[in-house]
Amino acid sequence: MAFFKKRKLSDGKWHAIAANLGKPATIDDVADELSARSTVSRADTYAVLVELGDVLGRLMASGRSVKLQGVGTFYLTCRTQGTGTDTPEELTPEMITDVKVRFIPEYSRGQFKQITGRTILDGGRMEWIEVKE
Length: 133
Hints:
Layout: E1 2-8, E2 14-19, H1 27-36, H2 42-61, E3 66-68, E4 72-80, E5 96-105, E6 107-109, E7 115-118, E8 128-130
Parallel strand pairs: 1-8
Antiparallel strand pairs: 1-2, 3-4, 4-5, 6-7
């Protein structure tokens, strides 16, 4: 299940805002869940998870996106300062001012190219519950 709160936004209308409850899940929580669902020990799972961020960073820094089956694809985006340059020769790496990691959840498409399922965000499996403040 997922949780939401009702918020009045700047447009003057009420909207649903996704809400997180309690503290964020930790790497320990994830290691416990994964080891319970597999034959891999908690210690081995934890060791892999600890290294995952560094491995993703190195692969993306080498110019690749990273697609994890059942999870989704991670990739980098960047921005340059100002409004750009008039010629490609003027654009230098020093002008990059912002780098972000983006994520697209894994999805599947039906015969007419419509998205039929998303592993993390499958609305058919998600029950929304309102959180009262």
